[in-house]
Amino acid sequence: MEQKLIFVYNSETGLFNKLTDFAHKIVSPETYACSLCALTYGKFTVQKAWSEYIKQLPMPVEFIYRNEWRFAPVRDTYPLVALQTGENRIEVLLEAEELNRMKSLDQLKSRLDEALQKACC
Fold it and tell me: Which domain of life does this protein belong to (predicted)?
């Protein structure tokens, strides 16, 4: 199996959840629970710089919600970024604590580049 990068949002699937998240980001962005969303999305769409960064990554990328995360151990803190290296093999590259401290998209991209270099080489 080819490696795959998985981004897990601190949100859940469903129309109601998406609408609630959207409203929260607009009304009170400083208390929004998903730092990964806050770093990579503007008010309405994904940031162009993030979209371009994702396209240049050397592996497939998947974006999922926390209730879709199927790898053990089940995490209780999200968001996270993980590298899948086999059918049931996963390595968490960036934990919620680190993502929550990030202040910019550039910081996320730089740290992810570092983590991928360590994990892949």
Answer: Bacteria
- pLDDT tens figures, 71-99: 866 677 899 999 998 888 889 999 999 99
Model's pTM, two decimal places? Answer: 0.80
3-state SS track over 10-71: CCCCCHHHHHHHHHHHHHCHHHCCCHHHHHHECCCCECHHHHHHHHHCCCCEEEEEHHHCCC
Q: CA of 43: how far to CAs of 1, 27, 47, 51, 89, in Å?
A: 36, 10, 9, 15, 35
Residue 120's contacts (CB-CB under 8 Å, 6 or more residues apart) are 3, 83
Exposure pattern of 23-38 as b/e (b: 16+ CB <10 Å)?
A: ebbeeeeeebebbbbb
